[in-house]
Design the sequence.
C-alpha cells in the first residue's frame, strides 16, 4: 500500500505458518525435532524458496538463535 506502513503477508506464507504451528502444537509434548523437521519439509512446496519462513521454522524446531 502506498504511503502506509501496512504490508500483507502472502496467502501461501500464511498457510505455511498456520500448518507449521499446527504440527508444532501436536508435537510439542514429544519434542521430536527430526519428526518436526520432516513434516516441515513436506509443507515447503506451499511457499517460495526465497521466503524466510523455512529458516524461521528450522530455528524454532531446533531452538537456534535468531
Sequence:
Amino acid at each position: 500500500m502506498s504511503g502506509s506502513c501496512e504490508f500483507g503477508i502472502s496467502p501461501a506464507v500464511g498457510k505455511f505458518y498456520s500448518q507449521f504451528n499446527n504440527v508444532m502444537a501436536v508435537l510439542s509434548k514429544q519434542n521430536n525435532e527430526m519428526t518436526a523437521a520432516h513434516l516441515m519439509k513436506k509443507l515447503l512446496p506451499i511457499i517460495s524458496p526465497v521466503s524466510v519462513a523455512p529458516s524461521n521454522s528450522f530455528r524454532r524446531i531446533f531452538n537456534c538463535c535468531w
Q: What stands out?
A: Helices lie at 11-27, 33-43, 53-62.
